[in-house]
Amino acid sequence: MDTQAILHVQNLQKHFPIKGGLFSPKGSKRVKAVDGVSFSLARGQTLGLVGESGCGKSTTGRMVARLMDPTGGRIVIDGVDISQLGGRELYNFRRKVQMIFQDPFASLNPRQTVGTAIAAPMLAQKINPSGGMKNRVKELLEQVGLKPEHYNRFPHEFSGGQRQRVGIARAISLNPSVIVCDEPVSALDVSVQAQVVNLLQEIQRDTGVAYIFIAHDLSVVRHISHDVAVMYLGKIVERGPRDELFHDPKHPYTKALLSAVPLPDPNAARLQQKIRLRGDLPSPANPPSGCVFRTRCPLFSTLGEEQQQRCITEIPAPASTAAPACHHSGMAAAALADVQ
Amino acid sequence: MTQLQPSSPASANETGAFLEVRNLSVKFPTDDGLVSAVNGMDFSLERGQTLGIVGESGSGKSVTSQALMGLLKGTSAQVTGQALFQGKDLVTLPESRMRQLRGRNIGMIFQDPLSALHPFFTVGEQIAEAYLVHNTASKKQARAAAVDMLGRVGIPSPEQRYDEYPHHFSGGMRQRAMIAMALICEPELLIADEPTTALDVTVQAQILDLMSELQQETNSALILITHDLGVVAEVCDSVLVMYGGQCVESGPVDEIFYDTQHPYTLGLLKSMPTLNSSARRLNPIPGQPPSLLDLPKGCIFSARCDYAALAGDGVCASTRPGLVVEGGHGTRCHLDRRQILTLRNTR
After folding, report:
1. How far apart are CA B11 and CA B297, in angstroms?
2. What are phi and psi of B333, to 5 degrees?
3. Which of residues 114-153 of A touch B (CB under 8 A)?
4. Which of B206, B234, B284 is the closest to A262 by Cβ?
5. Is A197 on the interface with B (CB under 8 A)?
């Protein structure tokens, strides 16, 4: 396996200014939607990005595709930092990263035939496929499991799963190195979802494309990803190889998240150790001091006063593949067992 | 429009079931023809029990619940069959009587709490209103009841939260408020239509725990409509699997998962990735669900069924199988149970 990283993301940040009122001038407060995210991705690999809504996973994906401009940090693709590119260079970069969106109904123009939609990226990049544009589009249609005669059809003639296939055909038309998949199967029914997941895996095997797979469904992420990063309030709290992360989660948030997934197996569900988080995600405009997770952390109440002070005052080091972003993860396993 | 079915002599007293649905069908006339959304549903439910109705989009699970709630009255929908709730047929009950039952005896929780809550009224007022409609109480008493209920569903400082508007609430809290509204009159039957689909898993877990707790407290019956087999495995006592407006398999939750009888249910279970089975390739069900405008003459699932050829004589394509119930476990398939068993083990 070729494990050389093609994508390096370092300390990526996205801050949105909060519109100021009369007494607080504009820009004085900021929402840190993404706050210091780092990861890397190798050719032919999939990185799963998971977390609750509002954790910054979609914003991260959109910055990698440069649909949003980062506030800070570096995004290095094939050795080039693309975080500050503009003009001609940005235009050339576009063919390297493509995106698949969640809603197959909103992401296709209802007045465009499927053929036109799939040809659009190639036209925009002034690519003339050998054998002609139309043949190339028909080839792509077949590659994603549709029929060449679908070329002249309109999006409303397709089901959700088929539309998502059109979106995939469009994304792979430029042979990108990275595809950012933002919740690509969450709008689909289970039986159709499996078809699309299989298709994504086949394409990866054939072309060696790397995926950033953003989803809130942990079972799908587990199925498709090689590495997984768990985000909470704009930060990655834990990342690592899939099996390690799912078998032996180290961060209390990862543990809680995994234990909240309902298992389609009644006996396992009865035995499952359930860690319930209290309350909701804090507002990212006003995140807790120190460790952002401490307000909901099941471990926090079991700590001594000195240890709690550390959580309140000290921001944990960013998660690496070796250690999660937690001051006390070493004792997490034992303590959480006691909490239950 | 509702039609009176030539009623079978059985009245509620004979059956005694808390909720008994017989041959319930719903059809919608459209410009393209008659859409058969629900085709002959039969099931029953007792107090204290949780029934999960699972199926994909368009399988008729939400329409079934709307028919039970009488929400299709006054629309163009043609509802036939019987739904006996404590002896009263919800299908033929006049709207005025239905209004008394709704909220008081039957509560409903909808999927999207933001569109189910009125943005101009405080959350508390909306919960208190449900109380005032069904109880002779002063506004003060209603407020007290609503505050108490908000507290019971786990909303912190309910006294202050009472006066806040839906947009002040997070998604999970709105769903809690919806549950408070549905439960304030302590209904005996609660219908929850995808109550956690819009929520994150951690909040979903909280809400499911809360619903089970409250159900145990009040000994009510719960119908949980969902597409998530994980949720079903976690909270339901019995399950009803719907496909193309029909119940294709029904039974106790363990039997549905461990002694699956219908090829569609098998297909659903195989197409799901789970947390502990990452290596294998997913087995999707090929094709698409049938059009409800033009249902096949034979088994509704036959076009997508891997095993249809085994039944022989093209029987799957020509005749629609009936629901065969054995020991509380029903399935609608031409293959006999031994055939299914060998198939389940060989694949």
Report:
1. 32
2. -155, 145
3. none
4. B234
5. yes
Q: How far apart are CA B331 and CA B337, in angstroms?
A: 9
Residue A286 forms contact with B (CB below 8 Å): no
**β-strands A72-77, A5-17: how paired?**
antiparallel
Tell me: the pLDDT tens digits for B180-236? 999 898 899 999 998 888 788 888 888 888 888 889 888 999 999 998 899 999 999
The set of long-range contacts for B341-344, using a CB threshold of 8 Å and a minimum separation of 24, is B343/B263, B343/B266, B343/B307, B343/B310, B344/B260, B344/B266
| Sign for the pseudo-dihedral over CA of B335, B336, B338, B340 | positive
Contacts with B251 (C-beta within 8 Å, 6 or more apart), sequence order = B238, B239, B261, B328, B329, B330
CA atoms within 13 A on the CB side of B111: 11
ipTM here: 0.81
Minimal-distance CA residue of chain A relative to B169 = A280
Q: pTM for this one?
A: 0.85
Residue A219 burial (C-beta neighbours within 10 Å; 0-12, 13-18, 19+): buried
Residues of A with Cβ-Cβ distance to B173 under 8 angstroms: 280
| B246 strand-pairing partners | B243
